[in-house]
Amino acid sequence: MIEQDGSVVEGKIYYDISEEDFRKLDAYEGEEYARTKVSVQLSSGKSIESFTYLFKKEYFGKLTKSEWALTGFLCKKTRINLIFFA
Questions:
Q1: Which residue, 33, 54, 60, 62, could crosslink 29 as a Cys pair with Cβ 3.0–4.6 Å?
Q2: Which residues, 6 or more positions from 40, have their beta carbon under 8 angstroms from its beta carbon?
Q3: What are the structural domain ranges in the chain?
Q4: pTM value?
């Protein structure tokens, strides 16, 4: 994800994540992403603070015009251990 004022992203919230789990996800995301606290509006209308990973501006030159697709991502990654946190 990249930060844009007024943008909306649909996702899932995971609760009670340990610091060890965050360290694992930080390592997986790598240096191109920053774990960032954001305000999230739930489907109930309630707002909470959560974490997401935003692509750092200094790496924007690596982005392409192509839309991201999970299938393409999975084809490029032979071993994936995804851990989602909030």
A1: 33
A2: 13, 47, 48, 49, 50, 86
A3: 1-86
A4: 0.70
